[in-house]
Please model this.
Amino acid sequence: MTGAGTTSAERGWFGHPRGLTILFLTNMWEQFSYYGMRAMLIYYMTKQLMLAQGNASFIYGIYTACAYFTPILGGMIADRYLGKRRAIIIGASVMAAGHFMMAFEPMFYLALATIALGNGLFLPTLPSQVGDLYRRDDPRRGWAFNVYYVGVNIGGFLAPLICGTIGELYGWHYGFGLAGIGMLAGLVIYLVGQRHIPAEPPRPLRSTTAAGAEKRGFDRQTILVLIGIGLAVTVFRSAYEQIGNTVALWADTSVDRRAGGFVIPVTWFQSLNPLFVMLMTPALLAYWSRRARAGHDQPPARRMALGAMIVAGAYLLLAGLAAIAGGGMTNWMWLAVFLVVYTVGELFILPTGLGLLARLAPLHLGATTVGVWFLMTFSGNLSAGLVGSLWSHMSHSVFFVLLAALAGVAGAMLWLLNGQTEQIDHARLQPSKSIDKFPNRINMS
Model:
């Protein structure tokens, strides 16, 4: 496919290449399988396997940590040895096998390890192919990750409702089997739609020593910027990840969930975030598209900084509500308002950040660089656990101010990095005029 996404024949959903729809659906079913299994895991260990709560929580933590650590290794393997397509096919197949192995109790630990290993190949490679669909200077390239991000949230929204309900009512093994079927569905979609995914480019030969030295120096600058972004995202996620931790505790104890004669289950609020992502993404894409056509497109790092500040504002809202309520209860509608603001900020920073990493990826290290994004998630989740441990040591309002401060610091860091990211991006676009000679090299930005 030459110049992917540049002709009307190649445009599909939201004016993007058809390949984006294939990657979107593949990702959606993978997320369905992952979140479906994860929703049942702690209950399966404590109720079916009769593990002690402490041991079960430890195993759960090790598994989720590995799920975000293996992608950096898998990305390197994909870039250096397997190639993206083979990495995705092998990773999806291994994960599907792991999910089906979960249906057999003696294979429990082997199943978890199998899923984590398959995830390492699959997770960083699929989003790196999103960038392959566009030329380096295509303004739709960044927005594509917002469309792709919707797939994460559709899968995350449906999986606990479907897999979790089947597992709880009819047996955990059936729920795990359903998660495996979801993974197979994603694999089949990817295999059938491969013709819409650009072929991987050949490795370029280094023609001169000077060119190689220039490239190495350029990559060093890129790596330093990526480290800076990683630190900022880690700080941000230490606040962002509280949504399923301390914010959930606050919702359970300090939110009046009565609506008429019905008490809203506290877990239902966890589904609002992915629901809002699905509802808001089309409107945000249309808004950003209008701004780009008017010549007011926002640089990715600056957009990420704005997203972090919006999340900081959401936590300041909670701090104010907690201070006003004192030891009393807050109406559930305010929690819904918080989730709306929180989700807007999330959409500004997280999918944009994933797209920025793919855009800044050094030559032939696309999957490795996207794997770094999941390493950031790993480190951010660890720091979020440390921050969450402070919940019982300070008032709720002070704690939420702390979260707002962390998100604000991350926003400031990203704002300061904007100049460097624009400089690298500009340098990448300079040779883009030669892309017509090598049209399949579009995935290297």
